[in-house]
Design a protein that fits this description.
By secondary structure, the protein is mostly helical. The chain has nine helices and two strands, in the order αααααααααββ. Helix content is 57%, strand content 4%. Strands 1-2 form a two-stranded antiparallel sheet. Helix 2 (37-47) crosses helix 5 (76-92) and helix 6 (97-113) packs antiparallel against helix 7 (117-131). It is flat, with a radius of gyration of 29 Å.
């Protein structure tokens, strides 16, 4: 079933990949599993027609389209097929990130020649988005089992106990002022510090 605006070749590729059967429960699927015809309609609406998730779900026949769109986009089978369809589209259009960035750079140069700072900023903003500069930074903190035990012990302590530990550490530590690049310990009885 070919819809307007879609090339028959692309639709035939999707139909060839479309196995029978499937399961709509989000998060329970194998990414290589089968999609239902309604799920394939959602994929086509997302990849070929570039609809929003909610509109793609509504066009695919889901009654509760907002909830369905949320669940469908959590489904690894669906997201994999959307990515495949979009990659096929980019390949058939002979487009890649580098070519798009080059196009934006050219547009920025034209905006510079026309002395249009608004267009220049918009071009640079798009290039920044494509390069991932606006994505939130992720920090992964690994805590070992012994570290988790220590964190749990510290969380169970009262403020007074924590302050007492800090004061004991402060009293037992020797403050040394200066910058050290290298620490040399010759033997346990005689510790020396060397500045290098």
């Amino acid at each position: 079933m070919s819809s307007p605006g879609n090339s028959p070749k692309r639709n035939s590729n999707i139909k060839n990949r479309m196995p029978k059967g499937g399961d709509d429960i989000a998060g329970k699927q194998n990414p290589d599993g089968y999609l239902t015809p309604r799920q394939w309609d959602f994929v086509r609406n997302m990849a070929d027609k570039r609809n929003s998730q909610s509109i793609a779900a509504r066009n695919a026949g889901y009654a509760s389209h907002k909830a369905a769109a949320f669940n469908l986009m959590r489904n690894p089978k669906i997201t994999k097929q959307i990515a495949i369809a979009r990659a096929e589209y980019a390949e058939s259009a002979n487009m890649d990130r580098k070519r798009i960035v080059e196009g934006f750079l050219e547009a920025v140069d034209i905006a510079r020649m026309k002395a249009d700072p608004t267009a220049m900023v918009q071009g640079w903003r798009e290039i920044g988005r494509m390069c991932g500069f606006y994505e939130p930074q992720r920090t992964v903190v690994d805590v070992s089992v012994s570290g988790q035990v220590m964190v749990q012990q510290l969380q169970q302590m009262t403020d007074a106990q924590l302050i007492q530990i800090l004061e004991e550490e402060r009293a037992n530590s020797e403050a040394i002022e200066g910058n050290f690049d290298h620490l040399v310990v010759e033997d346990e009885e005689d510790e020396r510090y060397e500045d290098e």
